[in-house]
Amino acid sequence: MDMQNRYFPRLLLLEIVAVLLALLFLVPFYFVIANSMKTFGEILANTASLPSSFFVDNYVRVWEIMRYPRAFLNSLSITVLSNIGLVIISSMAAYRMVRRPSKFNTLLFSAFVASMVIPFQSIMIPLVKVANEAGLMESRWGLVICYFGFGVSLNLFLYHGFIKSVPKEIEESARVDGCNAYSVFWRIVFPLLKPMTVTIIILNSLWIWNDFLLPSLILTSPDLRTIPLSTYSFFGQYTKQWDMALAALVLGVAPLVIFFFGLQKHIIEGITTGSVKG
C-alpha cells in the first residue's frame, strides 16, 4: 500500500502527460474537420475557430468534382486485391523458409529484409521503365503487381517471426492423418496466423489507401484515379481550394478510420506475438 501511495503522484503525472500528448496529436483532425465545414473566406478569416454553421455544400461539390464513387471503388479494389495477393504470397513464402531452413532460404530472407531499407525514390525511374515495357501502365492490375513487389518484404518479415511460434507438433499430427503439405498449411497453419494476418492487412491498407506517389506514376487516366490522386486536383500551381480539399480529405480518410478502429485490437496482439516468440 505504501509503495502504491509513493508512486501514485508519478503515475498521475505520466497519465496527464499522456492525455496532453493524445490531445496534441488530435489537433490536426480538429483543423481538418472544422475547416471542411467552412467557406473559403471563413477559413482565411479564422482557421482555428469552430464553423459558424454546418456548411455541407463543400462535401456535395467535392462528391461531384472528385467523382467520389468511382475514386472510392478504384482505391477499394486496388487495396483489396493487393492485400489478398500479399497475404497469400508472403505467408506461403515465410512458412517455407521457416519450416525448410537452408542456406539458400536464409540468404533469400536476408535479401528481402535488406530490400526494406531501399528508398522508393531511388528506383522510381527504373520502375516506370520496367512497368512500361511489361505493359503495366494505365492498369489497376499493373499497380497491384507493383504493390506485390514493394510490400512482400515487410509482410514476409512479420510472418517469418510469427510462424516460429506455431508448434510443429500440430503439423506432424495433421500429416499422420493424411494431409499433404498444402492441406497442412491452409487448414492448420494459416488459421493460426489470424492475428498476424489481420495486422498485415491493416498496415497494408493504411499504406496502399493513402499512397500517392506510386499511383501517380502508374495511373494517369482520370477514370483510374484513386482518392489521393483525386484530392490532389484541388491543389493547383497558383490556387489552393482549401475548403473543398479539406472536405475531400475527410471523405478519403473516413472509410479507413472506420476500418482501422474496427480491427485495431489485433495490431498489438499480432506484432507482440511475432516479436517475442522465436
How would you describe what is shown here?
The longest helix is centred in the first third of the chain and has 34 residues, at 2-35. This protein folds into 2 domains: 2-35; 70-276, MetI-like (MetI-like fold, Orthogonal Bundle). It is globular and about 70 Å long. It has helices at 2-35, 40-45, 57-65, 68-99, 103-115, 124-133, 140-163, 168-176, 181-192, 194-210, 213-218, 227-232, 242-263, 265-276. Mean pLDDT is 85; it is low at 274-278. It is mostly helical and 278 residues long. The protein is built from 14 helices and no strands.
Low-confidence residue ranges: 274-278
Secondary-structure element sequence? HHHHHHHHHHHHHH
The helix count comes to 14
Radius of gyration: 23 Å
Q: Determine the structural class based on helices, strands and strand pairing.
A: mainly alpha
| Average pLDDT metric | 85
Predict the CATH topology of the largest domain: MetI-like fold
Please indicate the count of domains: 2
Number of strands: 0
Biggest β-sheet strands, sense, barrel = none
Content of β-strand: under 5%
Features of the shown structure:
MetI-like fold; 14 helices; mainly alpha; disordered C terminus
Write the layout of secondary structure elements.
Elements: H1 2-35, H2 40-45, H3 57-65, H4 68-99, H5 103-115, H6 124-133, H7 140-163, H8 168-176, H9 181-192, H10 194-210, H11 213-218, H12 227-232, H13 242-263, H14 265-276
Helix pairs in contact: 3-13, 4-7, 4-10, 5-7, 7-10, 7-14, 8-9, 10-13, 10-14
